[in-house]
Amino acid sequence: MRRPRRTHRLAFTTQMALAAIREEQTLTELAQPFDVHPNPIKPWQEHRLAGVPAIFDSEGKPVAASAGDAPVLHAKIGPLTWENDC
User: Fold this and answer.
1) Residue 72 or 67, more confident
2) Do the Cβ atoms of 65 and 40 come closer than 8 Å?
3) Residue 9: CA atoms inside 13 Å, Cβ hemisphere, count?
4) Is 60 left (phi over 0), alpha (psi -120 to 50) or beta?
5) Using CA atoms, how far apart are residues 73 and 43, in angstroms rounded to an integer?
6) Which secondary-structure segment (H or E) carries 50?
7) pTM for this entry
8) 44: closest CA among 36, 54, 56?
9) Which of 5, 24, 34, 38 is the most exposed place for a label (fewest CB within 10 A)?
10) 57 backbone dihedrals φ, ψ, rounded to 5°
């Protein structure tokens, strides 16, 4: 009997990608304890590495979230909390 297709959370795929980036283990060794096939680990790794340049500016300094977004985001928290509670 085939196992149903699984979806993995972002935190899990990021954890696997970071472990693959460290290259302390082969993909097969990395996949075995988590019961994951080694094939999807490489795309997860490439996807995370592709997003790294967006974190830094042209001088290599980390890009901070703009402080101007905070009031807008805080205004959304109340209605969303109300929706989730009801």
Assistant:
1) 72
2) no
3) 3
4) left
5) 32
6) helix 41-51
7) 0.59
8) 36
9) 5
10) -85, -175
